[in-house]
Amino acid sequence: MGFWSNLFGGNKKAEPSYKNRLNWVGWDIHNHILPGIDDGSPDVEESIKLINGLKELGIHNSVSTPHVMAGVHNNTPETIKVAHGKLNDYLKSNAIDFKLNYSAEYMIDDQIDQWIETDKLCLIADKYMLIEMSYLSESKALFNIIKDIQDRGYQPILAHPERYNYYHNNFKIFEEIKSAGCYLQLNLLSISKYYGENVKTCALTLIRAGMYDFVGTDMHHTRHLEALKAVVSKYDVQELLKGCPIKNSKLIESKSEKKTA
């Protein structure tokens, strides 16, 4: 049975090991492992479980991206830095070898214009801005926000485009987003049925078209971790994405890394 047939429901037996299956990724650029700051890890203990899980998968570098969402997760560069420092101090004091950088995932809401205009942003590698939309309704401001970010000299990345159900019957919109100069980031769990069959179908369609620029775990908790282990045990994700220009491993060079001290 072919590789793509297996993805769409084949009965191929799962491989026995997931260890180091994602070492090609380099940097996980989207996760919620910083403690007590959003709907992700509630404390350092849980964060360490998630980090150990990433390491087992072969990922030893993380750009953690807590939500910035008006009225829900009112994070600022200061609150994110504090949470990062707390977890990073624990890593250092316990000699855990894991590179932990930080950024944010910005919801396109009534507050995002303020963050961009004041240039008070937590960016990935001082350049990339991870943005998202509501899963319930399309943001009419998307293309304006993309332009505003670019006008500041930064590069927008749209998180998990495959999860926006209102785009599932409009492939052209993804082409328009890419043509506007916005990168697309795949949630690795989307290639399974974790978020539903429609999300999986959309993700695989975008993969086949070579549309993705980045991948991320979007890991919030151990349920995500266990699901991710199952996915990478079953599928050769690197082979699946060979037609996409995945940039994770080259995203952060030493000169542009955020200080982890």
Report the major sheet. 6 strands, parallel
Could you say which structural class the secondary elements and strand pairing correspond to? alpha/beta
CATH class: Alpha Beta
User: Can you count the helices?
Assistant: 9
Kindly describe this structure.
- This protein has one domain (18-251): TIM Barrel (Alpha-Beta Barrel).
- It is 35% helix and 13% strand.
- It has nine helices and nine strands.
- It has helices at residues 3-7, 44-57, 77-93, 112-118, 142-151, 171-179, 197-208, 222-234, 237-240, and strands spanning 27-28, 61-64, 67-68, 99-102, 105-107, 128-132, 155-159, 183-187, 214-216.
- Helix 2 (44-57) links the parallel strand 1 (27-28) and strand 2.
- Helix 2 (44-57) runs parallel beside helix 8 (222-234).
- The chain is globular, with a radius of gyration of 18 Å.
- Residues 254-261 have low confidence and may be disordered.
